[in-house]
Amino acid sequence: MNSIVNYKDRGNFGKNNYRGNTTGKILLDLHKIYKFNEISDYMSGSFTTKDVANHLKISSNCYDLNVGFDLIDNNIQERNEFIFWHPPYWDIIKYSGNVYGNQILKNDLSHIKDYYEFVKKLNFCLTKQFNTLEKGGRIAILMADVKKNKKLYSMLLDINKLGTTEQIIIKQQNNCMSDDKIYSNNNFIRIAHEYILILRKDNPLIIPFSITKTDFFDIRDSLKITWKDLVANVLENLNKKAYLNEIYNKIEGHKKCNSNKNWKEKIRQTLQENKIFYKIDRGLWGLK
Predict the structure, then answer these.
(1) What predicted TM-score, i.e. pTM, was given to this entire model?
(2) Interatomic CA distance for residues 41 and 64, integer angstroms
(3) What is the CATH number of domain 219-287?
(4) Which tens digit of pLDDT belongs to each residue from 257-274?
(5) Domain ranges of the chain
(6) Tell me: the pLDDT tens digits for 218-260?
(7) Does the record carry Transferase as a key word (predicted)?
(8) Dihedral-angle region of residue 283 (phi above 0 means left; psi in -120 to 50 means alpha; beta otherwise)
(9) Is-contact 163 126, C-beta < 8 A?
(10) Topology annotation, domain 4-210
């Protein structure tokens, strides 16, 4: 097995008409590597994992919200050797009330509108499953990126990494509904892959982890930014043209100017010495 996989034929595992159903062949390959004797899946969808386990003649514990198991509210009864987890890719496919059933279920992650709330619930589910792993146990998480409004939302980047990160596998996507969609322009990169993240539990009590923190900072409060870059960004914020007083007002009171008592003189010097700036009129400067 290589770190990049492609399965053009899904095989006869699960229901191919169940939207988002993955191929069972990835589980066959994972079994060859990790040789687990039992597998659990708490978001089974069309129960691909159960079909693969039956094919391999190993034990399985497979559940889903569509048959009444709620990973948010229900307890996990098993002590696990290997978990396969294929959560929804945010709201790309809405499951309850659409793929199955006539009503939206309370803890269906695919109906969460806010991405960061989705990630919060995703991490809750991850921790809950990881806690059930035995020493040396693994969870394999199949997930993807979502592109909306010129922004990439990456489940792989944003999900917590618990235990030992053992492997990332790139899986090529096939037979997506978006493959046949015609867009008005092609100035974007189509997403054509998924990820399988393998996390391993090496210590029952002490769990290393890494998390992604999302925040923002104001570059005017950075002491490391150069005056050239600061003034350029201020001018860009002012539509690439501004009087000196406008530039001063944008920077005054921030940490960068507090670090230099002659900051106004420094701004004028910066404008005069850097070729990315040009003088339009007296006291009026532009950014090329």
Answers:
(1) 0.89
(2) 8
(3) 1.10.10.10
(4) 998 999 999 999 999 999
(5) 4-210, 219-287
(6) 999 999 999 999 999 999 999 999 999 999 999 999 999 998 9
(7) yes
(8) left
(9) no
(10) Rossmann fold (3.40.50)
